[in-house]
From TrEMBL:
<keyword id="KW-0862">Zinc</keyword>
<feature type="binding site">
    <location>
        <position position="74"/>
    </location>
    <ligand>
        <name>Zn(2+) 3</name>
    </ligand>
</feature>
<feature type="binding site">
    <location>
        <position position="102"/>
    </location>
    <ligand>
        <name>Zn(2+) 3</name>
    </ligand>
</feature>
<comment type="similarity">
    <text>Belongs to the PHP family.</text>
</comment>
<dbReference type="GO" id="GO:0071978">
    <property type="term" value="P:bacterial-type flagellum-dependent swarming motility"/>
</dbReference>
<dbReference type="InterPro" id="IPR050243">
    <property type="entry name" value="PHP_phosphatase"/>
</dbReference>
<protein>
    <submittedName>
        <fullName>Phosphatase</fullName>
    </submittedName>
</protein>
<dbReference type="GO" id="GO:0016791">
    <property type="term" value="F:phosphatase activity"/>
</dbReference>
<keyword id="KW-0479">Metal-binding</keyword>
<feature type="binding site">
    <location>
        <position position="16"/>
    </location>
    <ligand>
        <name>Zn(2+) 2</name>
    </ligand>
</feature>
<comment type="subunit">
    <text>Homotrimer.</text>
</comment>
<feature type="binding site">
    <location>
        <position position="132"/>
    </location>
    <ligand>
        <name>Zn(2+) 3</name>
    </ligand>
</feature>
<dbReference type="InterPro" id="IPR016195">
    <property type="entry name" value="Pol/histidinol_Pase-like"/>
</dbReference>
<dbReference type="GO" id="GO:0005829">
    <property type="term" value="C:cytosol"/>
</dbReference>
<dbReference type="InterPro" id="IPR004013">
    <property type="entry name" value="PHP_dom"/>
</dbReference>
<dbReference type="GO" id="GO:0008270">
    <property type="term" value="F:zinc ion binding"/>
</dbReference>
<feature type="domain" description="Polymerase/histidinol phosphatase N-terminal">
    <location>
        <begin position="5"/>
        <end position="79"/>
    </location>
</feature>
Length: 248
């Protein structure tokens, strides 16, 4: 299946990435992506943009050449209390909040602490997607996070980059997470985690894992712009009028 939505990517604003907003739009048109979320790292990361970057995303167009652009962030889970580095005016500026663990902000803890921090972030009501929860450097209680994600209506991410260039050893955890989300009745979000536009919309390994687990397609947020936007509207109480043509 070709998924027309990609929910995780980084631009040159995160200085270890190499593509611009325009690069992503051009690539989206080539590969059939109708809706994308730009999710540069939250400001607590050393290479991340300043919080003004996120506040000023209001200047972005909503649609460019028919491609919808969501204003997002990959926030950092900062502590066991689940606090994230997205607050105040940033919360009003972003459409979608992904949050996850990154070593420069919160070094790996023991399994119980990692699990508690992730569940607290979900329980806060601020987070829509947990990024790369299968990272083996951050062991978690997989059934517990899947149950919490279903309870708090947070999607767990299946991150294609975790099978290629990042987070070596993630595959067994990712397979177990997909199975646990299936069992718990929760949702999956697919992310290319692109750091160059050339991998936009590449979900090759995500699709393989979902097929192995026989994950139900009706619970994959990326299946259509309408499904993703309906999920966000349910979570935030907001709709984005400019995206009406994407769901018609």
């Amino acid at each position: 299946m070709q998924y027309p939505v990609d929910l995780h990517m980084h631009t040159v604003a995160s200085t270890h990435a190499y593509s611009t907003l325009r690069d992503y739009v051009l690539q989206a048109r080539q590969v059939g992506i109708k809706l994308l979320a730009i999710t540069d790292h939250g400001p607590d990361m050393a290479d991340a943009p300043h919080y003004w970057h996120f506040v000023n995303m209001r200047v972005w167009p909503r649609l460019v050449d028919g491609v919808g652009i969501l204003r997002g962030i990959e926030a950092n889970i900062k502590n066991i209390s689940g606090e994230i580095d997205c607050s105040g005016p940033m919360m009003d500026a972003v459409d979608i909040i992904i949050a996850g663990f990154h070593e420069p902000v919160l070094p790996p803890q023991d399994k119980a602490s990692n699990t508690a921090a992730m569940i607290a972030a979900m329980a806060s009501g601020k987070v829509h997607i947990i990024s790369h929860p299968g990272n083996p450097k951050y062991p978690v209680d997989i059934p517990a996070i899947a149950e919490a994600a279903a309870q708090y209506e947070v999607a767990l991410e299946l991150n294609n980059s975790s099978f290629t260039t990042s987070r070596v050893g993630s595959e067994p955890n990712c397979r177990a997470i997909v199975a646990a989300v299936k069992q718990a009745g929760g949702r999956l979000a697919l992310g290319s985690d692109s750091h160059t536009a050339f991998t936009l919309g590449n979900f090759e390994h995500c699709i393989r894992i979902m097929n192995e687990v026989d994950f139900p397609q009706e619970r994959v947020l990326n299946a259509s712009p309408a499904r993703l936007l309906s999920f966000l509207a349910q979570r935030t109480g907001k709709t984005i009028p400019e995206f009406a043509e994407l769901i018609s």
